[in-house]
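Reopening: structure tokens for the magnesium ion complex, inputs below.
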Amino acid sequence: MKGDMILQVENLAVSFSTDGGTVRAVDRVGFELEKGGTLGVVGESGCGKSVTALSIMRLLPIPAAVIESGRIVFQGEDLLSYPPEKMARIRGGKIAMIFQEPMTALNPVHKIGGQIKEMYMLHQPSMTGEQMHKEALRMLDMVGIADPIKVLGLYPHHLSGGMRQRVMIAMALAARPDILIADEPTTALDVTVQAQILELIKKLQQEYAMSVLLITHDLGVIAEYCDRALVMYAGRVAEKAEVRHLFKNPSHPYTQGLLASIPSLAGKRKTELTTISGTVPSLKNLPHGCRFSNRCPHRMEVCVRQAPDRRVVSGDHTAACYLVRQGEGQNAHA
Ligand SMILES: Nc1ncnc2c1ncn2[C@@H]1O[C@H](COP(=O)(O)OP(=O)(O)O)[C@@H](O)[C@H]1O
Ligand SMILES: [Mg+2]
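Re-run output (same inputs, fresh job):
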């Protein structure tokens, strides 16, 4: 394994029991997050991005969700083997998460000041009240809140969506986590605020030397803010690569379709927005073989018979597609 990995997810499979039977939302997903790096996870709604993130945080709704297999290795230990108390110290302390909707993390009936202070009491209990107050002001200032003293005394509903997102980031960073998981942190915000929040995350990442797992359905965000990317489709990894390799040589037809459907990164708008025909299959009714086969313009007979394994495009760029001619004549193992 190359580089310095802070997190390795191996062979993760998660299923949900629903009224209509069991569905496997995440199917043998594996990836690694480099220390100080930003890994983007991209894919259409329902492809398993949030379930993957919640598995890392051990926040899946139990008993509906079952982790069927896998390891989530953080600092050499499998988080899935941790007892709940030990995991509670990791969660929010070493690995923090921010969500699309800040109200998931903010308590509507408590003032912002009290909520930030609570983070310190949980994760840095040796701080005095005075230190917590000072640190809370510093953090709010750092996330770009103009009048931190005033904001400490406000309730979440007094703030705009963008301000709430900033407060949530300040809270997430209170314990100086090693990893920040950002699950579509800007999807609910308007475009200018989106860019501000993403820039903020980037700035804080550099300042704190954090590793970031950035979940998005927007390949443009991946291009701008991530160094590596994981493309997911219907619960599986379609492609995995350094971002520049992914854009230069997208090797899974799904990635190619995603790329074709975004406006040109150079700023030139395509006259026609190419989109992938068909829709994502329901997890209850998946096609045989490759899950993308019913939409794939290059479908071959083998694709509907058996799902392709991960194949090496070059280096650590892999794609689960028969069209990839094996770089070294062997399947990827990592
Ligand atoms: N609480 C739940 N109960 C049942 N199924 C769920 C639940 N949460 C997620 N799923 C299933 O997992 C799939 C992936 O969900 P999710 O990870 O939230 O997708 P996304 O990529 O949009 O974040 C969904 O399509 C759904 O089938
Ligand atoms: Mg999601």
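The longest strand covers residues 5-18. The chain has eleven helices and twelve strands. Marking as resolved unless the reporter disagrees.
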